Amino acid sequence: MNSSRPGLIERYRDRLPFEPGDPVVSMGEGSTPLVRADHVSELAGCEVWLKLEGLNPTGSFKDRGMTCAVSAAVREGAQAVICASTGNTAASAAAYAARAGLTGAVIVPEGKIATGKLAQALMHGARVIALRGNFDQALELVRELCGRHPIALVNSVNDFRLEGQKTAAFEVLEDLGGEVDAVCLPVGNAGNITAYWKGFVEAGAAPAMYGFQAEGAAPLVTGRRVDKPETVASAIRIGNPARWEEAMAAMRDSRGAVNAVSDEQILDAYRMLASREGVFCEPASATSVAGLLHHRAGGARRVVCVLSGHGLKDPQTALEQAGSVVPCEATIEAVERAVLG
């Protein structure tokens, strides 16, 4: 079940809870690019790098944790895996379950999942259940279900997910020679910022961790759960993060902070990243850049912004935010007018 490109379990086995001979379900995840963002750097007044997690196999950072969670499920003899999801976890769990030959089931909030993510989960053969409720209710229900049946829960409450996701911190340090002052991340269920900090601590590094939430789904900022979270950034539309305490500890211990940005600020950063940096990410990913631009990162000199998912995850939002297609007759004169204006 391995790929020819070594996945993160193979690369970092000495720092992960896997022994030689353990089953490994991999698609060559990890080793994602870290690219310098010149325009964002100019706007932010510091050196900004973008960690392009949308270039993982299913298009999001979730694959880092899923290779570990599903490999562990196979090792433990599970026949099925399940998750609650706003979309990316569903796509990743469905893909890795299919690769492992396991039954996959995902519960998503009805009408609240981006089109690309829904298409992925369905194509990978998962049983997709549209819950008449939000993500937080879905997670409560799948946890109860797994308590009743021998099904592996692969949400970020699964510690193997964090083990896989911490490897992104190792890569950041390797790519930047250990020199990074701050890391900015979008925060939804809060597993990723928890995992990054875990990775940095294990590697002996301590960049300041800055978490950013959407204003309509900002429980860590307000200090209370949000019963009906709303934001265009569907991947972080979560009102009661599963890793709440760990994420707050990560930001506190690293001398970072948590702040909120508006949907308008998120979409501004989303469009700017595509048009000025050539990087097409999903709206939730742009939250890290929006947060840096509007709240800064405590005077940090070198900052990494994590872009958690690819723009094709949410094509509908892209079409709503982009320019229109130019119709044109099939003549050279018409093409000249269309191209040159």
Detailed description of the structure:
By secondary structure, the chain is an alpha/beta fold. It has two domains: 8-60 and 162-321, 3-Layer(aba) Sandwich (Rossmann fold), CATH 3.40.50.1100; 62-159, Rossmann fold (3-Layer(aba) Sandwich), CATH 3.40.50. Helix content is 43%, strand content 15%. It contains 15 helices and ten strands. The protein has helices at residues 8-11, 38-44, 62-75, 88-100, 115-123, 135-148, 159-165, 167-175, 191-202, 219-222, 244-253, 263-276, 283-295, 315-321, 332-340, and strands spanning 34-36, 47-52, 80-84, 103-109, 127-131, 152-153, 182-186, 208-214, 257-261, 302-307. The chain has a six-stranded mixed β-sheet with strand order 1-2-10-7-8-9, sandwiched between helices. Helix 9 links the parallel strand 7 and strand 8 (208-214). The longest helix has 14 residues, at 62-75. The N and C termini lie far apart (52 Å).
Tally of DSSP β-strands: 10
Structural class: alpha/beta
Strand fraction band? 5-15%
Q: Approximately how much helix is present in the residues?
A: 40-55%
N-to-C SSE string, H for helix and E for strand? HEHEHEHEHEHEHHEHEHHEHHEHH
Sketch the major β-sheet.
6 strands, mixed
> Runs with pLDDT <50, length 5+?
none
Radius of gyration: 20 Å
Number of domains: 2
